[in-house]
Amino acid sequence: MTQTDPNTRTEPDTQADRSPQPGRDRQPDPNTLAGDAEAAEQTPPGGAAPAGEPIAFATPLGEFPALRGDGVVRVRNLRYATAGRFEAPVPAELRADEASARRSQRIACPQPLSPSDELLGRPLRGVEFDEDCLRLSITLPDGAPDEPMPVLVWVHGGSHVSGAGDLAGYDPAAIVREQRVVVVAVTSRVGVLGYPTDDRHPANLGLLDLIAAFRWVGEHIAAFGGDPERITAVGQSSGADALAHLIAADDARGLFRRVILQSAPFGIRDGRAEMQRRMAEAAGPLDREASLEALFEAQSRAKSAAAGSGLRSAMPFGPRAGAAPLPAEDEVEAAWREHAAGLDVLVTRNRDETAFFFEVDAKLAALAGKPVVGPLLRRLLVARTTNAVYRAGARRFARIVADGGAEVRVAEFDGHPDGSPLGSAHAIELALLFPATEAWEGAPLLAPDGARDLVAAGAALRAAWAGFARTGTFPSGYVPTGHGWTGSLIARRP
User: DSSP character for 345?
Assistant: First the structure.
């Protein structure tokens, strides 16, 4: 059965472009599942398929179908591994023409609609959902230099239940064009498909996917102009959480030299066993032959069962300690310390992280809307929960890996659009790093008018990220935002 997002402009999906996947099924458009049919029919420009001139991009590994435009070349949707449902990934055979029918598609792993979809400007519009989603896209400068370029491997956020690597809002063209770097965007399994709740299947499939992707990059990125000795892993939110866990995994050692962790929720990393037990009980055994609808119903039951676990219940899915490739929970910090030597680490957080969740959680929004006391309660709760989930744990992590021999910088970002009602909320810096104006236009996160000057406003931040990837150093003091924005990133040693 094949059901695709009606917003997506697709090319024929040939049998040569896909591998048999047991239990594999495609998902309907999540907007349709949510009953938003009118919005699904009126796709904004940010949801359009990637543009560019189709070309054959010559490499030592063969000629790859690609798109050229906007000063960059994009080799898109290369399969880095294959996996049956609830099975560990297996490295995929590299075929230069494998993704020829997919170079103009946006692909995501199946997922229900996220509560944060509207706040972020509907980032999944125009996406095709497919369980054959272990894909990566490579963006490099048009007319790349002869010398190998630093590589940034992007791991998206989404609470381990939503998102994809190659979305319109994560378009890396600006940083690639300006800084002469290579960006690799990785898509891996999420939700119950990536982090099964029962014990019948591997628990951390999403992490195993990422390990497979980093191995692919290490083996093949030189053919696309990248330097395999200068691979920087960049993750935001749950993507940063995944990378922090990979630092603790023996199987991931040596896969990247540098790492940027943006808004990693360290404060809810541990103490999850009882919550995960309740989730497994509520979801029940997961049948690999079940429909996606049935699996998403199990995922919903598991999420509901996580309620009552404090702040941890805000991100119930994710890595399970003590299951491959991770050590037991009480051994994670020792593993961080042991694996830290030789790493360059940048840990960032936003000043007002949890202001984001006051916009997507109805109970929090109602609390903040109370007359007189609402704004005061909101400020107090944002400060306290930001510290509990993001700030305190990040400081501890930074000290641990510094003690283990890593070169570490920690930084706080207080930037936001002029006149923003949200301040420097969770994920707001992504629009500066990936300034795809059409994709971010109208996103409430950037209200009132933060999308207008994104390219100029984020130039210094993109230069700082690229400089770190190039040399492992990071500016001390301020990294400013530009016109239309207020604030900066302030970096220091832990």
Answer: E
Choose the catalytic residue: 201, 263, 426, 429: 426
From 438, 480, 488, 436, select the one nearest 176 (Cα to Cα).
436
Tell me: pLDDT of 20 over 50.
no
Q: Which of 36, 33, 49 is nearest to 111 (CA)?
A: 33
Q: What is the DSSP letter of 465?
A: H
Instruction: Return the closest-CA partner of residue 259 out of 222, 210, 212.
Output: 210
Pairing of strands 62-69, 72-79: antiparallel
pLDDT tens sequence across 34-44: 333 333 333 44
Q: Clarify whether 353 is annotated catalytic.
A: yes
**pTM (2 decimals)?**
0.91
User: Rounded CA gap, 82 and 62, in Å?
Assistant: 21
Among residues 237, 309, 420, 424, the one annotated as catalytic is 237
Residue 56, Cβ neighbours under 10 Å: how many? 12
Q: What's the pLDDT band for 490 if we cut at 50, 70, 90?
A: very high
How many residues does the structure list for the chain?
Answer: 494
Annotation says 237 is catalytic = yes
Q: Let me know: does 152 contact 468? Beta carbons within 8 Å.
A: no
